[in-house]
Amino acid sequence: MIFPSMLQNKRVVLGVTGGIAAYKAAYLVRLFKQAGADVRVVMTRAAERFVCPLTFEALSENPVYNDMWQDNSQGKIAHIALAKEADVLVVAPATANSIAKFANGMADDPLSTLMLAVTAPKLVAPSMNINMYENPATQANLQILAKRGFCVLAPGIGFLACGDEGKGRMPDPEIILDRTAALITEKDLGGKRVLVTAGPTREYMDPVRFISNPSSGKMGFALARACEHRGACVTLVTGPVEMDDPINMRVIRVTTALEMAAAVNEYAANQDMVFKAAAVSDYRPAAATDQKIKDSRQIETLELAANPDILFELGRKKGNTVLVGFAAETQKLEEHSAQKMQKKNLDMIVGNIVGVSDSGFGADFNTVTCFYPDTPPDRLASQSKDSVAHAVIDRALTIYRKKGYE
Ligand code: PMT
Question: What is d(CA 153, CA 183) in angstroms, rounded to the nearest whole number?
Fold first, then answer.
């Protein structure tokens, strides 16, 4: 799991209302905390029937706000102070009753009162029985919230606690985390089209054996997610990885380098930026068999055929696109990265050392140096791949603006 760096040091106020999914809000607090946020939990009386405030107090490391009349030692009015300090207000789970209160401006409990006072972005994650969710009254209330600028998540579909099946489950905490980060991220890539590649390719010699590398796709997925959070229209072409599709983008799953080349070529035109984080196999077995080779020891040499260099081809016909490559090196990072940047006609190449445990392939962190054709390189401190992604995008955007592509 990659934790969005945009939530680092942000004050997240989490409203928990009285539905069975309230127990999932405890895990959501953990996710927000792991992303570096300062979490304040506000509970309704009904929520306390499902989960006790102490759980949220322990997980958030802050007192829970659940009583409008409680003594506030600093002499401040609690809901106004909390509202002023909030960077984002998330309500999960949001019951039909709370949604109705928010839509109609009622203020008769700590959360609905706070809701009126908060000016920061707001997100609601509905969770209720399918008929309650589909009831025209609830739908009208949700539309009112959406029109007022709330981010209203669609509930998940599946088994509901009442025994029914269908729409009504609280969206997964990971989705709420992702959408919260998106909500508070500046949309400086709004209206821009971005293509990202991620993961390894697999080059089969028979149906069960292949040439590949340990790329997990984490770096490319972090880039795709960060671009989407910043407002871009993203196409992600990924080799075989074990991650779910990121939200709100076109995702194309491929296996081989030839398939990746075909997908990239199909979507590369008119992109504002291209980030090529995929670890593409340079070679494939010259001939693959349809059936498993019975005894591989009979093969003494494996004949290889060169795969197309996808990035080189993009560099040859580059128009007003900022082209960013990645270089995976085990030595001479600067020299090898610079050679690749020049050969492939790139605007920037992100060099990283691979084959070490806390950076490169498979790691949650990366230590990279950005190289440019005309200016000195800048070495970034080791940081999460999510954070590296934002730093790389910042630099690509600077190049985009300098070149006057805006
Ligand atoms: O996926 P993770 O586990 O998170 O790991 C991330 C990463 C280490 C894979 C990533 O940060 C990275 O370095 N990706 C590029 C790996 C690579 O293939 O490097 P390269 O030096 O072989 O290729 C240079 C560039 O040319 C790359 O942008 C690559 O996508 C591109 N290329 C290479 C070969 C080829 N046939 N076609 C290409 O487009």
Answer: 12
pTM: 0.95
Of residues 93, 117, 88, 114, the one with CA closest to residue 25: 93
Cα 314 to Cα 115, 144, 213, 226, 347, distances in angstroms: 49, 46, 23, 22, 12
Domains and CATH numbers, the chain: 5-183 (3.40.50.1950), 193-402 (3.40.50.10300)
Catalytic residue annotation: 162
Distance 55 CA to ligand 1 centre (A): 44
Which residue lies with its CA nearest to atom 5 of ligand 1? Answer: 361
Q: What is the distance between the alpha carbons of residues 317 and 314, in angstroms, rounded to a whole number?
A: 6
Q: Which residues, judged by CB distance below 6 Å to any ligand atom, belong to the binding site of ligand 1? A: 197, 199, 215-220, 257, 276-280, 282, 307, 309-311, 325-328, 340, 352, 354, 360-362
Residue 293's Cβ-count burial label (10 Å; 0-12, 13-18, 19+) is middle
pLDDT at 164: 77
Give, for ligand 1, the residue of 264, 276, 388 to mutate: max count of ligand atoms closer than 8 Å to Cβ.
276
Q: Are 196 and 236 in contact (CB under 8 A)?
A: yes
Query: How high is the pLDDT of residue 71?
Result: 57
Which has the higher per-residue pLDDT, 261 or 165? 261
Q: Count CA atoms within 13 Å of residue 69 on its CB side.
A: 1
- The Cα angle at residue 314 between residues 233 and 380, in degrees rounded to 5: 70
225, 280, 282, best to mutate for ligand 1 pocket (most atoms within 8 Å of CB):
280
Query: What's phi and psi for 293, nearest 5 deg?
Result: -70, 120
pLDDT for 74 equals 67
